[in-house]
Specification:
The complex is a heterodimer of chains A (138) and B (557).
Chain A lengths: L1 E5 L2 E5 L10 E4 L4 H6 L8 E5 L6 H11 L7 E5 L6 H6 L4 E3 L6 H8 L4 E2 L9 E2 L9
Parallel strand pairs in A: 3-4, 4-5, 5-6, 7-8
Antiparallel strand pairs in A: 1-2, 1-6
Chain B lengths: L5 H22 L5 H9 L3 E3 L4 E5 L5 E3 H14 L3 E4 L5 E3 L7 H10 L16 E2 L14 H11 L14 E4 L13 E7 L5 E7 L11 E8 L3 H15 L10 H8 L1 H15 L8 H10 L25 H13 L1 E2 L6 E6 L10 E3 H14 L3 E4 L5 E7 L3 H10 L14 E2 L14 H10 L3 H7 L4 E4 L13 E8 L2 E8 L11 E2 L4 E2 L3 H15 L6 H20 L1
Parallel strand pairs in B: 6-7, 7-8, 16-17, 17-18
Antiparallel strand pairs in B: 1-2, 2-5, 3-14, 4-5, 4-13, 8-9, 9-10, 11-12, 12-15, 14-15, 18-19, 19-20, 19-21
Helix pairs in contact in B: 1-2, 1-4, 3-11, 5-9, 6-8, 7-8, 15-16
Classes of the chains: A alpha/beta (138), B alpha+beta (557).
């Protein structure tokens, strides 16, 4: 299953991922400097493969590619990611997610939309965000 | 104290909904044990030896009377009526049912509490000095900075899957009562030469299998840069901390392997190039959070109280008068406001596993907090409670109530005030019992005159090398080890926490459980024999050395 964040909202494509553009693929533990040095794709998605769901390096990698290297193309999370991580993956800059076919589409939507507020300015911030740099109301 | 705004409340409420959904999917069989495990851990839910355990966050150890009543309620309704204060100032329930946890979290959310990130490989509850805001030696109140860190760390999307857990402590006083040197990151509030406020930043401390004191990363970090700097430091750790071996995954291993200079350079480089200016703290934001911790309405006339002698209640027997005098000496602490004192409630004693407090007791504590302490309670690293703002003239009345409730053990900082992990009675990791050892020591050292004569003497007990009982930083530390299926204990001496922290040294071969109390007695007797007038255990140890204690123990072997 491929889940994509698009201008029209969340698109869940039940078709196998092989049918979608495979894109360029890197492991979650690759230093962002190395990923950037090899050239960031312009049309195909950049796929970050997680060997384990607990590998936080992929989250930092995504955030840095979005912010420090200004990558604007599609950023796909694949591998051992869990549906309950989608909101946080998205926050770090991922906008495509490869999930096992049996995952329920409603669970996917619920996870992506789980929080309407957040404390940290990161990449994809929800509408309600803590403002640290002023003393005014939120 | 800090009250939630709409952002705080929305996040906690949505977190409860998320965990309810996850728990239901798990109970329906849609989530495997392995898939549910990291999700429950991020909400403080462990599976222990006999039952689940839920660790409820008490951010920086500050809790209101109303919140204490809710803790009493959930302990009574969803557990067996007992809570347990931890060394990181949290409160654990040792037998909740998994299916009840979403309801428990919902009840907590109604009083602005949660269990977010009380376990798992993420930033844990930020801890601080239990005297925060009332200590006479305070440079600035650490609680507002703890709260800012709490918010920043809560559900931080980049840092929910660190190599290992991450513990931050903040001290705002001249004297360190937050043990900043044994934390992954320790912050000490300082002022620079022009009077600006900031932080001294320490990193890479911790106990466990590799006990090590932290090293200084930065002498002065402007307060506005608190979160931008922490973000850079956490990012270096997230990228470079080891993930191949969980016993080598804490930041202390990274700092040690790279060396402090190299680690510092990596953090500073990341800080310079990666700073998100949206995280820089505006002075008005800092001030707003300080306002949330504004002092209570102390009575102006209390300033005259200090000159009036304190009388023991007239009905007291001679024994009670003696306990009252000891209680004043050990459990009553100086306060920055004249006419006020901070009062410790010791959760220790022969009949009480260290740190345990019943639901009934929690309700009484809430009542006392409202009547005597502006409705606020603190939890402490040493697994006790504090009423931070008690008027001095109320001390006799409060003592009588504490005494009648069995909560006036006058033993703060003495040998009978041990930090003690749950050990084999609860924990899946433990090699040895720790609570029964604490009890045996309480029985042996029940004579108050004797423990008072010993003076400040921290004795801590850990049931395994993970060192949750902080045995390394006690003057006498007991470490449970397993030998042929039985509990043995290694004795370490000479450790210390606070301003001049030190790690204890192993006294000799481990002893079986029945020999622990006699061995501690011999250590204590040797101290008494060797000490000079007014000399503490620690000073005596530093003067005569480990060898002298070893020889003394060997003579009796």
């Amino acid at each position: 299953m491929l889940v994509r964040m698009t201008d029209r909202g969340i698109v869940v494509d039940a078709a196998s991922v092989d049918a979608a553009s495979p894109g360029r693929s890197v492991d979650a533990d690759t230093p962002p400097e190395d990923v950037a040095a090899a050239g960031l794709p312009s049309a195909e998605p950049l796929v970050i493969r997680f060997a384990s769901a607990g590998d936080g390096r992929g989250f930092t990698l995504a955030r840095l590619l979005r912010t420090r290297w200004s990558y604007t193309g599609a950023l796909r999370a694949s591998g051992a990611i869990q549906v309950d991580q989608l909101f946080f993956l998205r926050r770090c800059g991922f906008d495509e997610f490869e999930l096992p076919a049996q995952v329920d589409a409603e669970t996917v939507r619920a996870s992506l939309l789980r929080f309407q507020a957040a404390y940290q300015p990161v990449v994809n911030d929800p509408a309600v965000l803590r403002d640290w740099s002023s003393g005014g109301p939120e | 104290m800090y009250r939630y705004d709409s952002v705080d409340q929305a996040i906690v409420d949505q977190r409860v909904a998320e965990f309810r959904d996850q728990t239901e999917r798990y109970l329906r069989g849609e989530l495997s044990e392995d898939a549910f495990r990291p999700l429950r851990l991020l909400n403080g839910l462990y599976y222990q030896r006999y039952a689940p355990m839920l660790r409820i966050a008490v951010p920086y150890g500050v809790v209101s009377a109303g919140q204490v009543r809710t803790l009493a309620h959930v302990a009574r309704i969803y557990d067996r009526g007992v809570g347990h204060v931890t060394t990181r100032q949290n409160l654990q329930l040792n037998h909740p049912r998994v299916e009840d946890v979403p309801d428990i979290l919902a009840e907590l959310a109604r009083v602005e509490m949660h269990a977010i990130q009380t376990s798992g490989n993420c930033v844990r509850n930020v801890t601080t000095d239990p005297m925060a805001g009332v200590a006479p030696d305070e440079i600035a109140d650490p609680r507002p900075y703890c709260e800012l860190i709490r918010q920043w760390a809560t559900l931080h999307p980049e840092f929910l899957h660190l190599p290992r857990k991450f513990k931050i402590a903040v001290s705002g006083a001249v004297h360190d009562r937050a043990t900043v040197r044994v934390h992954d990151v320790g912050l000490r509030i300082v002022e620079n030469e022009v009077g600006e406020r900031g932080f001294e930043v320490w990193a890479g401390g911790g106990l466990g299998r590799l006990p090590i004191l932290s090293q200084r990363v930065r002498a002065f970090l402007p307060e506005a840069e608190l979160l931008t700097y922490l973000e850079a430091l956490l990012r270096v750790y997230n990228r470079e901390g080891r993930r191949d071996n969980k016993h080598k995954a804490r930041i202390k291993v990274l700092v040690k392997a790279r060396g402090i200079e190299d680690f510092r350079e990596a953090v500073e480089r990341e800080y310079r190039q990666g700073r998100d200016t949206r995280l820089r703290l505006d002075p008005a934001r800092i001030e707003a959070v300080h306002q949330a911790f504004a002092p209570p309405a102390y009575a102006d006339e209390a300033v005259d109280d200090d000159s009036i002698p304190l009388e023991a209640p007239k009905a007291f027997s001679e024994g009670q008068r003696r306990r009252w005098r000891y209680w004043l000496e050990r459990n009553v602490s100086a306060h920055r406001v004249r006419g006020y004192r901070a009062v410790y409630i010791a959760l220790k004693g022969v009949e009480r596993p260290p740190g345990d407090v019943t639901a009934d007791e929690l309700e009484r504590v809430a009542d006392w907090a409202e009547r005597y302490s502006f409705g606020e309670v603190r939890t402490t690293y040493q697994q006790n409670l504090v009423l931070p703002d008690v008027r001095r003239r109320d001390l006799p009345a409060l003592f009588e109530e504490l005494e009648s409730a069995g909560l006036a053990e006058p033993t703060i900082g003495l040998l009978t005030d041990p930090i003690c992990c749950p050990g084999f009675d609860y924990c899946s990791l433990a090699n040895a019992h720790s609570i029964p050892v604490a009890r045996a020591l309480q029985e042996r050292f029940a004579d108050l005159d004797h423990v008072y004569d010993l003076g400040d003497l921290r004795l801590n007990i850990s049931g395994c090398m993970n060192a949750c009982g902080h045995h390394h930083t006690a003057q006498i530390g007991l470490l449970g080890v397993e030998k042929q299926g039985r509990s043995w204990y290694q004795i370490q001496i000479g450790g210390a926490d606070g301003d001049a922290p030190a790690l204890g040294k192993v006294l000799g071969p481990a002893v079986p459980a029945e020999d622990v109390v006699p061995a501690v007695e011999r250590v204590v007797e040797h101290y008494l024999a060797q000490r000079r007038e007014g000399e503490s255990f620690r000073s005596t140890f530093q003067r005569i050395g480990l060898g002298s204690f070893r020889d003394a123990l060997a003579e009796h072997a």
